[in-house]
Amino acid sequence: MTAAHFDLRARLASGEPFLFSWLSIPSAGLAAQAARLPFDGVCLDMQHGMIGFSDAVPMIAAINGAGRPAIVRALWNDPAVPGQALDAGACGVISPMVNTRAQAEALVRAAKYPPIGARSWGGYTALQASGLTPAEYLREANRMTMVFAMVETVEALENLEDIAATPGLDGLFVGPSDLSITLSRGARIDKLGKETLAAMEKVSAAARRNGLAAGAFGGSADVIKAYRALGFTFIAAAVDVDLLHWGSASLLKSLEV
Ligand code: 3PY
Ligand code: MG
Question: Residue 240: in which H helix or E strand, if any?
């Protein structure tokens, strides 16, 4: 029987906001805890987090065990990575720095089985995670699992329409820090800057026009609210280390007299 949480597309199709935690610390225990927080899913950051593939495997298992969607932000836009993450039981992959249509096509090729792409068979763990038989997983994986291209450079903005129209792509995901860094030619990180928000509005509109999910990295409440107002629904809430810092600061502050 299909594990309901595994059908990420069905969940996003509802149009309800999908707010997920973002883990950087390699720990299956942490992943099990995070999966029980009231977020809609858990993302493992293999790019800027400290999570390697052998760390990710038990973390993905713990998240699936708790009945939450497991999402992986890949180390790089490398065709070897999406299939590996999906085989390990992730139902979503976010790929950094997708700047051209050719890179978006390569991403889809890596993440989707034929006839859409050229993903290689071998998702042994994905079968456990999804609850599907091999025949069912082969039939359903292209629909249920989702691949997001990160739009986070000026080059990607210039190629936005071509990237968004890539057949088989499921979503766009804005990395607002890198986007603002490239927009300002290295001068600043400005996640709520006018230029950043104007660019993000274009990404959200391009996603909508092409029937794609619109995602972005939030990181704090004010940013999440601003991005929701631009039409983003698939939003990374906050990083584990920030949650730890905020929780500690809030406890210590409440002890002040
Ligand atoms: C960015 O904001 O550039 C990201 O990649 C989010 O981690
Ligand atoms: Mg980035």
Answer: helix 240-255
Nearest CA to ligand 1 atom 1: 175
**How far is the C-alpha of 41 from the C-alpha of 49, rounded, in Å?**
17
Segment 157-190, tens digit of pLDDT: 999 999 999 999 999 999 999 999 999 999 999 9
Domain that holds residue 109: 3-254
Other residues' Cβ atoms within 10 Å of the Cβ of residue 9: 17
Query: Domain containing 241 — which CATH number?
Result: 3.20.20.60
Q: Which of 51, 98, 99, 152 to mutate to test the pocket of ligand 1 (most atoms within 8 A of CB)?
A: 152
User: pTM score, two decimals?
Assistant: 0.97
Q: Determine contact, residues 104/163, Cβ cutoff 8 Å.
A: yes
Count of domains observed in the chain: 1
CA–CA distance, 82 with 115 (Å, rounded to integer): 17
